[in-house]
Design a protein that fits this description.
47% of the residues lie in helices and 15% in strands. The protein is built from 11 helices and 12 strands.
């Protein structure tokens, strides 16, 4: 029995829908995605969990960023949280199933195109790029109005996995230890390199310990795993569908912003990075967002998160041999130790590595 027939059977056996058609759309790290046509209903999307993917040693499916539990029930709760509490366009959920085969979730089909495709369709226009980033900033300001009492993996509204983690320092320790454990198992670093990493994290956390106590920030909702191909925008560049929300966290705002720097503000070159940041920040602040971009503690936290992210990337691409990403592990390692040595993340150099795959240009067009 092929995959399409399996999905047909799953839907017919576990829902009240009358299925009229099914079309394969995409295959991601953890899901196969299908467009579903249902009688007397708008188009829907089914996300089917891939078996035996992202299963941790405890037998639980977990995300690779924060070790958070993954399930279709949690995914449905996060869609509702982002749509209802933050007011962002996240899909409505019509059905979930964790029986009779691989778990799946059926949601409304969001309209729009991927952000990267929007830029391409607009011929990489500077105006289109900056306008979209302003919209994006406004959305993330709305997201961060949702607050929690502790840090950790968001399960549902006001619910953090295992009661949550008290304090930013403990939360950073958890993220770092997970990364170090994984790259140690992957043997992605030499013993000396691993010692240098540990020394960096220990030293940096020690020097910001007092700052954290003085400027402790209430945990806010962060989407965390945003990149140019996992949300939709409309023809104006305004986000129209956030559909990849499995890694949502109750965290420090820097957890969102370092990722924005690595994936969006650096899309072109150094000169455009500043303009991009200004556009993003204007949208963020005009919609009530509050974050001191120049505060030394926030900069340090962003750098720590960048190094942790790069640590994971070095491990993820170790041994990759597809003719395209063969050198990515070494590239990311070089950037990582540059952050440690200079005290600042070179976001544009990071984009240069990705550009080998995405083919995104280095310059915007005018207007």
């Amino acid at each position: 029995m092929n995959m399409v027939q399996k999905i047909v059977d799953l839907i017919e056996n576990n829902t009240d829908f009358t299925l009229e058609g099914i079309k394969f759309l995409d295959s991601g790290n953890g899901h196969d995605v299908f467009e579903i046509t249902i009688k007397d209903f708008p188009p829907l999307v089914a996300r089917i969990e891939k078996p035996n993917v992202r299963v941790a040693q405890d037998g639980v499916k977990r995300d690779t960023h924060f070790n958070g539990p993954l399930s279709v029930k949690r995914q449905a709760s996060l869609y509702d949280l982002v749509r209802v509490e933050a007011g962002l366009p996240a899909p409505k959920v019509y059905a979930i199933s964790e029986k009779s085969g691989p778990p799946f979730i059926i949601t409304e089909k969001m309209n729009g195109v991927h952000w990267r495709e929007y830029l391409e369709a607009n011929n990489y226009s500077k105006q289109a790029y900056l306008k979209s980033l302003s919209f994006f900033g406004a959305d993330l300001a709305a997201v961060q109005q949702v607050r929690f009492s502790s840090f950790g993996n968001v399960i549902a509204k006001n619910l953090i996995e295992s009661g949550g983690i008290s304090g930013l320092e403990n939360y950073l320790h958890r993220i770092i230890q997970l990364k170090l454990q994984r790259v140690s198992e992957q043997e992605a670093f030499t013993i000396d390199e691993l010692d240098s990493l540990k020394n960096y994290f220990n030293y940096t956390l020690s020097i910001i310990e007092n700052e954290i106590k003085v400027h402790e920030q209430s945990p806010v909702l962060v989407l965390t795993d945003l990149h140019p191909m996992n949300f939709y925008v409309d023809e104006m560049g305004k986000p129209s569908g956030y559909f990849d929300l499995e890694s949502c966290q109750s965290g420090h705002p820097a957890l969102e912003f370092y990722q924005i720097g690595m994936q969006f503000l650096n899309y072109f070159n150094d000169a455009m990075f500043t303009c991009a940041k200004d556009a993003f920040v204007s949208g963020f602040e005009e919609n009530g967002g509050c974050y001191d971009w120049e505060h030394p503690l926030n900069k340090q936290v962003e750098n720590i998160l960048c190094v942790a992210h790069l640590t994971g990337s070095v491990g993820s691409y170790k041994g990759a041999r597809d003719g395209l990403r063969d050198n990515w592990s070494d590239n990311f390692k070089e950037i990582l130790f540059d952050v440690i040595n200079t005290g600042g993340m070179d976001y544009v150099t990071f984009a240069e590595v990705l550009r080998q795959k995405t083919k995104q240009p280095k310059h915007v067009t005018l207007p």
